[in-house]
Specification:
Length: about 160
């Protein structure tokens, strides 16, 4: 199987595992102006239209503000697609940051398995980018979180 075909198969598996109806809300828009802005941005996007440009650079990232577990699951197929980005579109660091323990604990076994397969495949598919960004250690911890293994949460803290 070609690498592109394998990627497409894994992304289809993630899409099936995380197929979630679009929720009414994503962020707590009443919390503050920034949350309201992030809610508006996410409301304007779909799984099919979500682009790297919308997600900012970490300092501005609407996905970090998603409070609704179904909202995070709704966008997971798009986030998985973006996790394969390279160069200016590199997103794996942010993707792994978004795999916080409080979100992972809401995943089904099927969802955990799909993300584990994704992370393993990404580790080979974009290995040179992961090395360039010094993300192999974080990738190891993301896999441990998905598998429910003990260990430090990572440099991103206990979020």
């Amino acid at each position: 199987m070609s690498p592109d075909a394998e990627r497409d198969e894994i992304l289809a598996e993630v899409a099936e595992a995380f197929h979630t109806p679009r929720p009414d809300w994503f962020c707590d828009a009443r919390h503050c102006c920034e949350c309201a802005e992030h809610e508006a941005e996410l409301q304007a996007e779909t799984v099919e239209t979500l682009r790297r440009e919308v997600l900012g650079d970490g300092a501005w990232d609407p996905v970090a503000f998603i409070k609704n577990p179904d909202g995070f699951k709704y966008f997971m197929p798009a986030l998985a697609r973006l996790a394969y980005g390279t160069g200016q579109d590199y997103f794996l660091t942010s993707f792994m940051f978004h795999l916080r323990p409080d979100r992972i604990e809401t995943f089904t076994d099927r969802q955990r398995t799909a993300i584990e397969k994704l992370l393993i495949h990404v580790s080979f598919a974009i290995a040179s980018e992961i090395e360039r960004c010094n993300d192999f250690h974080e990738l190891e911890w993301a896999l441990r979180r998905i598998r429910g293994e003990p260990g430090p949460c990572s440099y991103q803290g206990q979020a």
